[in-house]
Design brief:
The protein is an alpha+beta fold. The strands form two sheets. Strands 1, 2, 3, 4, 5, 6, 9 and 10 form an eight-stranded antiparallel sheet that branches. A two-stranded antiparallel ribbon has the order 7-8. It is globular and about 40 Å long.
Length: 132
């Protein structure tokens, strides 16, 4: 199965050139980023421009965005990894961006949601997505 994706490199610099590759190449990039402790990926299925799913992570914290179209961006609801009112910074493209705990999930939870989208086309339930 092929996926279209862009990501930061291990130095943290976002490389906006979208690649189309087998899912295993994308997984390999994610694992390299995870081994250095932070990164940002954006991915879509090659058959359509949307939705696009992005995952920024740093340490154990991650934030997952879902872009249904150019005008609508939703964020996956936090899983309690960081209490609401607390905050953390995760990469979005090449910059660190601060997020409230209501939007923070564990890296494992965010990665599982992203892989589910790639494998089945299913996005997190609308109830789990927040319009910031």
């Amino acid at each position: 199965m092929n996926v279209s994706w862009a990501a930061t490199d291990v130095s943290g610099r976002f490389v906006p050139q979208e690649l189309e590759s087998d899912i295993s190449d994308f997984v390999e990039r994610f694992e390299k980023l995870r081994s250095v402790g932070s990164g940002y990926v954006e991915v879509r299925r090659p058959q359509s421009d949307f939705p696009v799913v992005t995952l920024g992570f740093r340490g154990k914290s991650a934030v997952l965005h879902v872009m249904h179209d150019p005008e609508q961006v939703l964020i996956m609801s936090g899983d309690g990894a960081l209490p609401s009112g607390g905050s953390t910074e995760v990469p979005v493209m090449g910059d660190l961006t601060e997020f409230d705990g209501q939007f923070v999930v564990t890296v494992d939870e965010g990665w599982a949601a992203l892989l589910e989208f790639l494998r089945s086309g299913r996005l997190p339930a609308r109830d789990d997505l927040i319009d910031p």
